[in-house]
Design a protein that fits this description.
With about 200 residues, the protein is mainly alpha-helical. Helix content is about 65%, strand content about 5%. It comes from Smittium culicis.
Length: about 200
């Protein structure tokens, strides 16, 4: 269900609301987490309800992944920079930028300027500036310059700061839930590592 909504938004260029995105993530990433937990509980004797914690972890993991895909040099080296733009998917920071920025339409519908380098086919317009009527999201571009331009739009809209704050709040909820369940040192260490405040993991 979650994956289907993700693809539907992508293929129809429909930007979801934040609430719709969180619901999708809960059914996508969170669904995988819940499945893993349920498989473990079948083999165990512990009947503690950890679904709330698992749901929080699923949302945290996906939004952090969205953030890292744009902001982390380590992530870019391993998986590529801003691959969500290449796939045409609406990530958490992009959704916020589209919904809260005067420049939103540069991501989904506006004339924007790109630099063409056509060495052999059209030498007369080599390195010329051309206006193209194609929105960035629909392009599914691999052009690093266009992706960096899109990332700068997200930055200017304050969406990175908003995402960091959202992740910090989720992290706080996760830690409280771990404590409510009696505490778990290993799980807390994982949260420490994934924390947005842990610059060594970014």
């Amino acid at each position: 269900m979650g994956q289907g909504m993700d693809l539907y938004w992508r293929d129809n260029l429909l930007c979801p609301t934040e609430a719709e995105y969180i619901d999708m993530v809960s059914n996508k990433t969170g669904g995988l987490f819940r499945l893993a937990v349920r498989m473990m509980t079948v083999c165990g004797s512990n009947d503690v309800d950890v679904i709330k914690l698992v749901n929080l972890l699923g949302i945290f993991f996906q939004i952090r992944d969205d953030y890292m895909n744009i902001k982390s040099e380590k992530y870019s080296e391993n998986k590529g920079f801003f691959e969500d733009i290449t796939e045409g998917k609406f990530s958490f920071p992009v959704i916020h930028s589209i919904k809260h920025s005067e420049n939103y339409n540069q991501l989904i519908s506006k004339f924007f300027i790109i630099k063409l380098t056509l060495l052999k086919a059209l030498p007369l317009i080599e390195n010329s500036i051309v206006v193209i009527n194609v929105d960035i999201m629909r392009q599914k571009t691999r052009d690093e310059n266009v992706k960096h331009y899109a990332a700068n739009l997200v930055l200017k809209s304050g969406s990175f700061v908003y995402t960091e704050q959202y992740l910090a709040n989720l992290e706080s909820e996760i830690r409280k839930e771990i404590d409510c369940l009696g505490g778990n040192q290993n799980l807390s260490l994982i949260v420490d590592y994934l924390s947005i405040n842990n610059k060594s993991s970014i």
